[in-house]
Amino acid sequence: MSTPTMKLLRTAALGGVLVLGLSACGETSQVPVYEDGKYSGKADTRPWESAEFKGDKAAWEAALKNRARGQNEYNRGD
Question: pTM for this structure?
């Protein structure tokens, strides 16, 4: 009792399963290659060395404390 539509549906389903099965075989390695003694990333800078604080660590710490104070629900005004 297989109609041409059912055969086509089965063939399409089998084709889909084969495509999905074969797509798993194409995975490439995602491990980075490291060179001994060399760092290839960007240089890190301290947060207070930005243009906003101009190297003033105390101003950065004050801004950080002020920001934390503003996020505390007990310190906020109604």
Answer: 0.43
